[in-house]
Amino acid sequence: MTEKERMATISQKLKSRGLKMPSEIELIYEYDVDTCSKEDICKRAIISAIMAKCAFYLYELEDKQKIKEEYTALLKKYELYDCLYDDELELLNEEFDESLSDTIAWRYESAIALLWTLGLVENIDDAFVPENAEKEICNTFDIITSYETLDALMSKAKLKSIEERSDMYVLYWYYHWCVVDASFNGEEIDTLYSEVVIERRRALEWALFCNGEDWDFIMDT
């Protein structure tokens, strides 16, 4: 698409949700990005989906040690235990922390954004509050675990173009800006849910700009 068409498409998506729009959309170009590899994106998608389900059931169920052992074994099966972030290791190896579990449980939304990046989820334009969070967590987990190995997932994945990925990131940047702006003004947005927007934006930004580095960064709005 031309620049004009790209900006018009993003503007229409914002308009359809009744969101504030800038006078001109600022696009991202290929020379501005430092993308993660397909392998790194696949690894993080698998980890995020597994850790989200683990965190959800640590929050919900009593036998926390059994849950930790089950999901630790699964991560080791995919040979990804050594790729966990510090907070994920803390979840598996330290005393139960309710706030940490809640935070990591939302990473299924990061996994959804990464699966879209990999061409394995059809569309992520909508960022509504999930009707059934447990069902969404389990569905995302099931997509990931339908692939027996990392290599199996990589063989099926087909990265979207830089243009597609950057335009989705720009859309979510404006989603995030609208969420923050509404919060400052004591307003609510019916067509967006902040946790969904934040997690998907984080994943899209990481995949475009962080080249495999930890995504523990501050997202500017």
What secondary-structure arrangement, pairings included, does this model have?
Blueprint: H1 3-16, H2 38-60, H3 64-77, H4 86-93, H5 98-105, H6 107-117, H7 133-145, H8 150-156, H9 162-184, H10 194-209
**Annotation, overall tally of beta strands:** 0
* SSE topology string: HHHHHHHHHH
Question: How far apart are the termini?
Answer: 26 Å
Mean pLDDT: 94
Report the principal-axis shape: globular
> Gyration radius, to the nearest Å?
18 Å
Fraction of residues in helix: 55-70%
What percentage of the residues does DSSP assign to strands (E)? under 5%
Q: Which regions are unreliable across 5 or more consecutive residues at pLDDT < 50?
A: none
Total helical elements: 10
Structural class: mainly alpha
The main β sheet shows up as: none
